[in-house]
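Kindly inspect what follows.
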Amino acid sequence: MSASPCGGGKAATVASHRCRVVEHYWVNQRYKYIRLEADSPIATVTQAGQFYQLKCPTTAEHEPFLLRPMSVYGAGPEDNRIEFLYNVTGVGTKAMATLPEGGYMDIVGPLGNTFTFSPGYRRILVVARGVGLATMAPLVREASQAGVAITAVMSARSPADLMEKEFLRGAVADVRSVFDADGSSSVEAVAILIRDLIHEQQPDAVYTCGSQRLLMLLQRVLNDYPHVTAEVAMEQHMACGMGVCLSCVRMFDCDGDRRFLRVCREGPVFPIREVVGEVEFG
C-alpha cells in the first residue's frame, strides 16, 4: 500500500469499529489526544500514513453531519488500540473534544495507502508542522525501531506549540526547530536549512504532511536531488473518504500526463514531485 507513481496501490481492508474512549486529554491549548479500544483487532491492519473516518458526537452546540477524516497517530501495542492527536478547530473536532473517558465512538478504516519506507535506509528526513506531527509519528516510530537515523525539521508558531515530545514519542532524532515567532520558519530560511541537511546528511528519503507551503518548498529544493525518495501525506477536505464523492480530488503530474486523483483513494501519500499546485475550478 505504499505510494506509487500517481498514487494507488493495494486497497486497504476497511471495516467499521465500535470503540471505547480509554484516554482523552488536552496536550496543549489547541490539541487533544484520544486513545480508543476497538471491538476487534485494529492495530495489525493499520499502517503509517493511513487514516480513519470518525463519527463525531452530536452536542447541544455542535451537530456534525459528515464523518471526519483523521490521520492515525499510533496503533498498538495492544491489537485493539488506536490513537489520534487532533487540533480542536471546527464543528466536528469541537464536538469530539467533549467525548468523556468511558464513552464510545464509531470509526471506519483503515483508509488510504502508506509511506514508502525501507529498513535498509540509513537516514530519513521528516519535515513537520501542525497536524502533520500526528500523521508522521507512526513513520518516525517505524524508522526508530528499524535503527534508521532520523532528522526532524519541526515548524510551529512558537516554542509552546512545538510538541516535540509528542512527535518523537521516545525516538532519538536530530531535531531542528523553526518558529513563526522569530522568523526562522520563513520559506527562505527553511529552504536553506533543508538544503544544508540534505547536502550534509544525505538522507535516503524525505517526508512531509499537510502544509502546502512546505510541500511547494520541498518540490523546489528536491529538484536538485532527484535520487532522494520524497513523499507527502496530503491533507484535503473529504466527505465520504472512500473515493465516491470526488470532493478531495487534486491534480498530479503522472509522467507528463496531468490527472485528477482522489486523495482519499489513490493517496493520501503521494510522491512530492508529482503534486501540482492548487487548481481553481469553474
Q: What stands out?
A: The first strand starts at residue 15 and ends at 26. The CA atoms of residues 3 and 138 lie 16 Å apart. Residues 187-201 form the longest helix (15 residues).
